[in-house]
Amino acid sequence: MSRQDPQDLGRRGFLAGAAAVASAAIAGTAAGAVPAQAAAAGRPNILVVLTDDQPNATEWATPKTVAWLVDNGVKFNRGHVTTPLCAPSRSSIFSGRYAHDHGVRDNSSPYNLDQHTTVQRYLHDGGYRTGLFGKYLNAWHNTDNPPHFDEWLLLDPVAYNDATYNDNGTVRTIAGYSTTVVKDRVLDFLDGSRTDQRPWFAFVAPKAPHAPNTPEPKYADTAVPEWNGRPSVPEADRSDKPDYIKNATHTLADGRTVRRNQLRTLLSVDDAVQEIHDKLAALGQLRNTLVIYLGDNGYCWGDHGWTAKSVPYRPSIEVPFYVSWPAGGLAGGTVDDRIVANIDIAPTLLDAAGITPDTPQNGHSLLGSYRRDHLLTEWWHRGEGGNPHTWASTVSATGQYTEYYKLYTDTAGQQAGTGELVFREYYDLVNDPYQLTNLLYQATPAQEAALGIPALAARLAADRAA
């Protein structure tokens, strides 16, 4: 496809998409349909802020972000990632596809992602000025420039202080706290719009709050609100859980430590977001900038004895998920209860830009009325042996069914193993939101049938094969 073709396609797609959005808004279809203002907004600037390992229940550390994007935007209170691991999740954000489709199943195989399928490729070829600032993909060589970005400050190895960056093709160390270094470069990129009239796409990805959760010096001793855990921290009886959870040993004290350190690092992210907001206001671009903020995965704070991600439980797969676009009608401080995920970001951005992708995507634009009734989540163990086993799960608003398999990723990041089913879980999320009682533990076939497990298993198998 020529470089001009996506622009023409984008204009046609925008007109068609705008008409569809306007019709949906007028018809008053399912909750979450975008107001008719989106039809007249034009091609917005696009800002994606992606934090690293930020779970829910962290709003205390991000009040400025919340004031901008929640109080004056939309909070999706059922935001998910489809694979709770950094590189697979980021690849899903870029491509709008599940990990089993885009091929980045673990943190060792970033080059499995087909760069032709990425949102940055579509936006760049569609006339956008594109920029990447911060973390990109795990195991990406920092001497390799990120494709389809006009400007970048790629942070690798990912560190908090005096870090190494690929700075527009030159690998060098830049002194200072990385969240601040990244923010300053973002502000410079935004200033470029004073002379470059193209719409822009900025992907901003600080290290925070990923371990080692090193706070900026001014926040090193900041007191955080006391936290006494939740029923899953720690879970007293884990006899109904898989072996790796039965053997987990982390405590409430461990969870408190992780939480405290994460919150302290997020304070600097909040400062950076506020400065970006102020820059957009000064440039007169605040109204027609589509902003999406989320974490690349959640994190357990001692839930079920676990202090990490990688597990199919809610603290691991659920993330903060905020969207604001005043010119598109997304500015009312509303809450959207649809099940949404990182795979929906690329379709949303392309929908707003009026670009129709020429490769299939698993996600759906958040700008329309689409409402899924369930979501596939999946995770692969890297290398043969070890825990947790590879798993896949189907999640709805009311329940979650999970299967564990004898599968793993090999040195090329490809799936290997027998695929034997080794364990199953089902949780009633309405009556058991903390996932304390696995209803399949010692369940009879009749009890499983009453829970609808055969249909859930069939649905999971179909989603994994799609």
TrEMBL record:
Q: Which domain of life is it from?
A: Bacteria
Using the UniProt annotation, give all residue ranges assigned to the region (Disordered).
222-243
Q: Which organism is it from?
A: Actinacidiphila paucisporea
Q: Where is the Sulfatase N-terminal domain?
A: 44-355
Q: Quote the Pfam families the UniProt record gives.
A: Sulfatase
Protein name according to UniProt = Arylsulfatase A
